[in-house]
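Q: Convert this sequence to structure tokens.
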Amino acid sequence: LCDMDVAVSRICDAVKNDEKICIFGDYDVDGATSAALLVRFLRSVGRAPQVYIPDRIREGYGPNIPALLELKRQGISIIITVDCGTLAVEPLEIASENNLDVIVVDHHATEFQLPKAVAVINPNRIDDESGQGELAAVGVTFLLVVAINRHLREMGWFETCLEPDLMGWLDIVALGTVCDVVPLKGVNRAFVSQGLKVMA
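A:
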């Protein structure tokens, strides 16, 4: 997936340096499971991320300028958006101007202009050739978690702590995948098939 390596490098730096991380999620099941998965992973590697879910009525969908600036004021240095962010061009421009690093993890249709972010991981980017455009956001998030975990392993992170069991979280991935009503074929089918076994 485009920008995966850039995102992994930045997130691993944040983990290593114990930076304040915030996960900015959508309020539907796909967004909630994406956020839950990332929270569980980061906690398992010794970090305690903050989670921000915008109010559906007051704030609407996706990153908004007041929320991003408030998170910056609270000392957050890196925000990972899940199931949103691809079309948040103006809010992410303001975030960048305020030295707030944003990584977008999304699956919604994109336009030619991507938001100004450290990384935009979205299999539906026009320039993405992965062929994984039918993934739900939680599926994209799971692939990000796998990549971060591999990089931390290569860094020697798990020499002093237990490596998490990523397969054990496929119940969360299955839930978000089914609830987002994406086609159950390819990797989606694998996620749901294994996730149902974990649920059982």
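The first strand starts at residue 21 and ends at 25.
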